[in-house]
Amino acid sequence: MKERHGQFIKMMLVTASVTVGLISVAGTANASTIYHRSGIKAVKSTAMYSNSNKGKTYHFKGSASHFIFKTSHHLKNYHHSTWTKTKQTTVKHGHHSSTYYYVKNAKNGAAGWANATYMKAGKDYQMGNAKNITSKDYIMKSSGKVYQLKGNNSWFQFKEGKQLSSTATYAVTAQRSIYKKGKTAIYYYVVGTDGSKGWTWHGYLTAGDHQSAVSTGVKPTSSNPVSSDGSIHVNSPKDIDPNVPGFYTYSENANDSWTAAGNKWSDKVRALLAKSENETPAEVRKEQISYNSRGQKIDWEGNVIK
């Protein structure tokens, strides 16, 4: 009887030992921290961006057949920037599998593996080189801002936005492509009569110009009535009446000789207009010098100066 009792005790001890072992293995598997993956494949470099607020990039810690994820970065901290994808792998756990991209960020070089579901193809907050274009005058078409671009072509920020003015004329001298969330937008570099200088989306502008000169105490004539802003607006510099002192405005166009380039606002002309408030039209006309299409120096009436 004692012998049987001893056997029973031994059996219980062995059974208990096996049970403990099974519980330990089962607990490790259910923790969902052990993964395996396919081989890493190099892919064509592709620009990507992410709008995710919960996604992360990871490092794989371990071997291809047995590894865990280690967080490297939170995607929410990299909105408005571009990632470049260079590698790809498939991560598996149980019956589930997901594609992961190896990505590197243009903002600060952050890198890691990100789930493909959090990434979208395209550039975000990158830009192309500025290209000089023939200067042309524009006015505001719809509400927008003029910005300074801080950064470089790989990553930049919009800074110091100034509202476009509905009464200002903007000379466009350059343009560049700006990429946001996979889409391309054309931005113009503008110099405004309101003192603004910077970049604005081309869709906010339309070709045209405004009267920009104002004075007081001008006398109207039948051919040159006084505008509501107190200036005398004429259709041509030749219409200036030397006997009527005042401040004149003139809407230039591509065919006139108001400036050397024809269809752009000249800083020299602006300075002359500002000075002319204390001069007669005849004095202003005598001082105005420009150039024709042949590069010849001409006076305000278009006569060649020898």
TrEMBL record:
Keywords: Signal
Positions of the UniProt region annotated as Disordered: 215-236
Region forming the signal peptide: 1-31
Protein name: Uncharacterized protein
Annotated organism of origin: Secundilactobacillus pentosiphilus
Residue spans of biased composition, Polar residues class: 215-234
Highest taxon, organism lineage: Bacteria
